[in-house]
Amino acid sequence: MTGGAVLAFWGTSFLLVLTPGADWAYMVNAGLRRRSVAAAVGGLLVGYVALTVLVAAGVAALLARSPEVLTGLTLVGAAYLVWLGASAWRSAATPVPVPVGGAMDDPGVALAVPGPGGGWLRQAATGAGTSGLNPKALLLFLALLPQFTDASTGWPVAVQIVLLGLVHVASCALVYTSVGLGARTLLADRPGLARWVTRASAVAMLGIGLGLGARQLLG
Q1: How far is residue 152's CA from residue 206's CA, in Å, rounded to a whole number?
Q2: Which of 18, 40, 63, 177 could anchor a disulfide with 30, C-beta 3.0 to 4.6 Å?
Q3: Contact 71, 205 (CB under 8 A)
Q4: What SS3 state is found at 93?
């Protein structure tokens, strides 16, 4: 695999990461709900690393021989996105203020969006599910990663896929951290706007999940 192939993949990958979707919606909610977005970003990255390992292990070939397995995975992922979207929509209706860096009566308060909460591990697990069970991400990895490998080089194809996957993960880390921090910075002192952005994110996840599910069921 040449450096040119890696660069070409990075360009394609980065443009795809910049396209808003379920990951963006999750990071907007995380930026509004948490003081730190590290757990949310880390969870998303774990999901993409898992997808990379699965593709490198030959799951792509397995799914190519068993399309019904891919259909089942897509439906599971679609249902998960619908659940996330519904949870985000419900949470937007009951905002509560939390301190950004001072007391509760500090004028600089953020809009905390209640929802599936918990500690660091719970947040990371939700992020991993968002990316790892995202049907669009699964299809992207199955279709995209193998296209940039070259079996004629001295590198095993599995190693090439892992390298390309890590390139994608690095792009995700940069973009999603920026999205989470940007949401908190721009919307923290605008609770009304933050509520509408949260609802828009919820609608995006609901739309993606319902659309993918309907496509599979209606065939």
Answers
A1: 43
A2: 40
A3: no
A4: coil
Convert 177-191 into a string of H (helix), E (strand) and C (coil). Answer: HHHHHHHHHHHCCCH
Distance CA 145, CA 160 (A): 9
Quote the CA–CA distance of 48 and 159 in Å, as a whole number. 16
- Closest Cα partner for 5 from 13, 140, 16, 169? 13
Residue 30 has pLDDT above 80, yes or no: yes
User: What's the pTM value of the predicted model, to 2 decimals?
Assistant: 0.69
Q: How far apart are CA 2 and CA 161, in angstroms?
A: 13
CB-count burial class (<10 Å; 0-12, 13-18, 19+) for 10: middle
Structure tokens, 22: 């379920």
How does pLDDT run across 85-99, given as a tens digit for each residue? 787 677 655 444 443
SS3 call for 110: strand
pLDDT tens for residues 121-172? Answer: 888 898 898 888 877 777 777 777 777 777 777 788 888 889 999 999 999 9
